[in-house]
Amino acid sequence: MFNLDVIAVSLVGYLVGSIPFAVILAKRRGVDVYEVGSGNPGATNVTRHVGKGFGLLVFFLDFLKGLFATWWFRFEFFVIPPEDPIFLAMCGMVASVLGHSFPVYSRFRGGKGVATTMGALLVVFPEALAVGLLVWLVLFLWLRYVSLASIGFGASLPITVLFCEWFVFEAYEHPYLKVGFAAAIGVWILIRHHENVARLLTGEENKFSGEKKKKKKKESSTLNQSNE
Q1: Please, where are the H alpha helices in 73-145?
Q2: 154 and 190 in contact (C-beta within 8 Å)?
Q3: Is the pLDDT of residue 151 over 60?
Q4: Where are the beta strands (DSSP E) in the chain?
Q5: Rounded to an integer, what distance in angstroms lies between the CA atom of residue 184 and that of residue 72?
Q6: Contact of 170 with 152, CB cutoff 8 Å
């Protein structure tokens, strides 16, 4: 199972996952994403400090990284078709998420990897992606915490994959391997959000809303009043 195909897919996945789209696009607007807000080079921080359009673009491009890492080799780039494309896709998924989290092009200062995970899941575990997106959406709309929604998304992955493999056991030769990969990604998402978890426990985590803009407006209004 571990051969040159695995090495090639993992290497490509890591290098593609390492492309720091958040850093690149934020710099085009004169913003160092490492120096603003949470300092996280991801779509949420870009949205808050560069704009919604750029944030959506970063999310889409990070999503494509995971999609490409799990799909490119299926177009017969190999002389001999891979024996286990599903396993290779899972290797590409993990490699792309690690590349996003520790990008070689940005001194290993990367993001949380949620968008890249979503792109990879579209190929590897589409059912888990559908359930995970629903969990993410419900938590986000209910509590307005992107971090908590992302953690819930990660936690849902192994549960969904286990449920699907339990009822469709013949779908893959090594069903519990898929569960293991899904669990590893879920745990990784939790680890990458450990600072957010600490802030959630102390009530210091910022909700995704217009609070910062309102605060700035309030401070500006107070300053204007003091100058009158």
Answers
A1: 85-101, 114-124, 126-143
A2: yes
A3: yes
A4: none
A5: 23
A6: no
Instruction: Give the residue among 158, 138, 139, 156 at the shortest CA–CA distance from 147.
Output: 139
Indicate the burial class of 71 (C-beta count within 10 angstroms; 0-12, 13-18, 19 or more).
middle
Cα dihedral across residues 77, 103, 40, 47: positive or negative: negative
Half-sphere exposure in the Cβ direction for 140 (13 Å, CA):
15
Question: What CA–CA distance (Å, rounded) separates 161 from 171?
Answer: 12
131 and 160 Cβ atoms separated by less than 8 Å: yes
Spatial contact of 98 and 150, defined as CB atoms under 8 Å apart: no
pTM above 0.90, yes or no: no
Six token digits for residue 79: 């002389």
**Quick one: tokens of 89?**
């896709």
Do 150 and 136 touch, CB atoms closer than 8 A? yes
Interatomic CA distance for residues 22 and 132, integer angstroms:
23
Asked if 66 and 115 touch (Cβ cutoff 8 Å), the reply is yes
Contact 100, 40 (CB under 8 A): no
Average pLDDT value for residue range 25-32? 95
Query: Cα 131–18–71 angle (5° rounding)?
Result: 50
Which pLDDT tens digit goes with each residue over 79-131?
Answer: 566 678 889 999 999 999 999 999 999 999 999 999 999 999 999 999 999 99
The sign of the CA dihedral 169, 80, 10, 92 is negative
Q: How far apart are CA 174 and CA 83, in angstroms?
A: 13
